[in-house]
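[INFO] parsing input record for Prephenate/arogenate dehydrogenase domain-containing protein
[DEBUG] input buffer:
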Amino acid sequence: MASDSSQPSPLKIGIVGLGPFAQFLAATFVKQGHTLTAVSRTDHSLIASRLGILFFKSYDQFIDAHNDVILICTSILSLSEVLKSIPFDRIKGPTLFVDVLSVKEHPQKLLLQAIPVESDLMCTHPMFGPESGKNGWRGLPFVYDKVRIRNEDLCSRFLGMFQSEGCRMVEMSCEEHDREAARSQFLTHTIGRILSEMKIESTSMDTKGFQSLVQLKENVVRDSFDLYSGLYVHNRFAKQELKALEHALEDVKQKLQEKMDNTLEENSRSY
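[DEBUG] output buffer:
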């Protein structure tokens, strides 16, 4: 994976939730020279060992590792329950909490309620994954919101991990992220899910446009339905986008029906 010559100084990073996306991020963090620990409700000790991560089976041990950064990589739907399991009272000294969930207002609210008041919080969304980022992160967008930052040096060092890989750094509020993501990410996933329900497959006469639709369907269904439903349940802007999609479909159907009616009427006059 190509990266710039200037690497951020090493950090101690603790990861909560070691699923596929967390593993994808962790592989690059380890290559950068950072020290990683992880905890998860599922025993990922073997995977962690292969990645060079120290895996803990208890949150107490994880917290006692005294990480500079605690990275929240749980699913959107499980975030609330996971946060209830973390013994935040055991944290000694300021810590930077960072989430990488695909919605932002929801984790911002829950984390501000849960983490110690002396700890910092940054809400982020790497807009790429194991497929789109498999050949490197250069030019891929990394969205972040410095929700509560007092230790600017630590925050900059964390952001530097993505800057050094060539990411396009995009700073925006959690609200703005969710509004834009509802139209881009949620709408994309919705179209892909609809195509999956229709069971579209490649044919012997595919156009380029249809090939794009098939590829969209295949990309979307690689993600779990929990991820997709989380984009809807915990992004307040997604509801209006779904309604807009429904109205747009009805408008298109009405225009088609009107065109067909007019055509039939014109044909009947010609005879």
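[INFO] The CA atoms of residues 172 and 264 lie 52 Å apart.
[INFO] shutting down worker
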